């Protein structure tokens, strides 16, 4: 399995061939950041500006952004920018003072969730959200055993890294974490997907018990983004949730990737499956890139945690964070971006599926709304084609279209544009992909 940071990463061993100002900048970055310096593409981009679905490099060239889900309503959206600037000009301080802005935002956000999830705690990142969620689950259940999918990524704190198998370059998660196969709708028939995934969850719970480890939670991203993007059939997660509850465990829905209208039909990814999680986590897309996150849960779960620990996060739920979060919800509603994700996402998915008639390396096109995966294989043996995926991603970059990679081997093209993506943008992406596949194959 390829670590997530290795997917389509620039190799510093190739820096000599670039030359000029780009090489100097890369060497400067490598000197400052060391081994933690990670960049995309065989020729890294210097991005200086964004607007809507477009990014602009230092030379003024425009790139169609079909990758960055964090600026969820579009780069530099005027309403979000104005809300942040206005509040910054008035006040930005921690939330241990009373401020109506964070209360209004909390009520509005909780109003979009199941009624049982009536308490919310704010954070600054999705990593912090998932870290807090795991601590909440452990305090409430008394267990520490966690189940995740085999190529999952849930963040980068010490606790959350342990539940992110795709973060490991060497070794893997500790014994308290059980890793199960993702619900692979390409390789498992739709009729068996729910039963198979639930069976894997049950087996993992039993294995934890046999090892003397008490089960705490199933932590899942309902679009299974890092595993290769598995969205259908809607409802397949219900059986697994029932297994978790019967074992007195909790379901944690990591909505950093599928939340805030990305899957189209609903604001939250878990709603497509008719599941009510015990804990829901959110991250930067809720602030269009501003550092804000949140954890929503039932009062009794939060009470159990607060009886043992204090929790305070200086910049979580600041007045600016609340203003930005409100502005993002405004834009989603006013510009009907959920409907746009469903309508244009379905159009894009069909256009991508049509390409498979001409390009045999496309084995599957799947996803929901504006989260779509295109699985590439060797047509001779059906095996994953990660090298081809890397080539295509770089071919697209040189055609000024930006996407990413996903899946255990990195063979899935990951497409997740801002929610303002249009059918014109979809046609631009498909045309570039058609050219890239023709050139590479």
Question: What would you note in describing this structure?
Answer:
This protein has helices at 20-33, 78-88, 100-110, 126-141, 158-161, 190-210, 238-246, 299-306, 319-334, 337-355, 386-398, 423-440, and strands at 47-51, 54-57, 62-65, 119-123, 145-149, 177-180, 215-220, 250-254, 279-282, 293-297, 362-368, 371-376, 401-402, 404-406, 412-415. With 441 residues, it is of the alpha/beta class. The strands form three sheets. Strands 4-10-9-8-7-5-6 form a seven-stranded mixed beta sheet, sandwiched between helices. Strands 1-2-3-13 form a four-stranded mixed beta sheet. A four-stranded antiparallel beta sheet has the order 11-12-15-14. It has two domains: 45-73 and 336-440, Aspartate Aminotransferase, domain 1; 78-334, Aspartate Aminotransferase, domain 2 (3-Layer(aba) Sandwich). The longest helix is centred in the middle third of the chain and has 21 residues, at 190-210. Helices cover 36% and strands 16% of the residues. Helix 7 links the parallel strand 7 (215-220) and strand 8.
Question: What is the H level of CATH, i.e. the homologous superfamily of the largest domain?
Answer: Type I PLP-dependent aspartate aminotransferase-like (Major domain)
What is the top-level CATH class of the largest domain?
Answer: Alpha Beta
As a whole number of angstroms, the C-alpha radius of gyration is 21 Å
Secondary-structure element pattern, one letter each: HEEEHHEHEHEHEHEEEHHHEEHEEEH
Quickly give the CATH architecture of the largest domain. 3-Layer(aba) Sandwich
Shape: globular
* Count of discrete domains: 2
Q: What is the count of helical runs?
A: 12
Major sheet: size, sense and barrel closure?
Answer: 7 strands, mixed
Mean pLDDT: 95
Structural class: alpha/beta
